[in-house]
Amino acid sequence: MANGLDLAEERARALIGRWERRPLGVVRAEDAAEFARAAGETAPHLVDPGCSRFTVHPMYVVSLLRGAPGAGPDEVRPDGMYRDEVPGTDGLDVRLMAGGQQVRWTGEVRPGDPIELLRVLTAVERKGAGDGFLLLTVEKTYSAARGTLVEVTERFIVR
């Protein structure tokens, strides 16, 4: 009988190359300013939507995982991650950790931008001795109507 890690690997390999599109909602200046304050920013152009030079914090869009706040408790794993955030792991008894992130900004995020996430699992690697762990690589693109805003490569460790 396969364990959770074996099942996660099997599921993840079946998902390689399958694109997922997810609307994340419209960027609200108030939410972006709240994010900047929580990140420790104090510059008025990042924390005050009333500032004439207000700019959305560059990492704000990358922090968006869902379109509407308040996901139900059934959407969140015991480790605090969303059930479908790491491909192939939904419903399995595995441990998840972030394994690194590379971010490339290609456009300016503006209040009022409707954001869409496009993501694809690009690699599944088994690492370590014994059962070891999985290293999953996910490519994400955050876009608005005028084009791509941010490109992200994320790695997740599954144990």
Q: Work out the helicity level.
A: 10-25%
Number of helices: 4
Give a count of the beta strands, DSSP E runs of length 2 or more. 5
Instruction: State Rg.
Output: 17 Å
Query: Mean pLDDT, nearest integer?
Result: 91
The rough form would be described as elongated
Intertermini distance: 17 Å
Main β-sheet: number of strands, strand sense, barrel status?
5 strands, antiparallel
Which spans of ≥5 residues are poorly predicted at pLDDT below 50? none
Strand percent estimate: 35-45%
The topology string of helices and strands comes to HEHHHEEEE
- The chain-level structural class is alpha+beta
Strand arrangement in the largest pleated sheet = 1-3-4-5-2
What oligomeric arrangement do these chains adopt?
single chain
Please write out the topology.
Blueprint: H1 4-15, E1 19-26, H2 29-38, H3 44-47, H4 60-63, E2 96-105, E3 114-127, E4 133-144, E5 147-158
Antiparallel strand pairs: 1-3, 2-5, 3-4, 4-5
What would you say this structure looks like, in words?
This protein is of the alpha+beta class and 159 residues long. It has helices at residues 4-15, 29-38, 44-47, 60-63, and strands spanning 19-26, 96-105, 114-127, 133-144, 147-158. The chain has a five-stranded antiparallel beta sheet with strand order 1-3-4-5-2. The longest helix has 12 residues, at 4-15. The two termini are 17 Å apart.
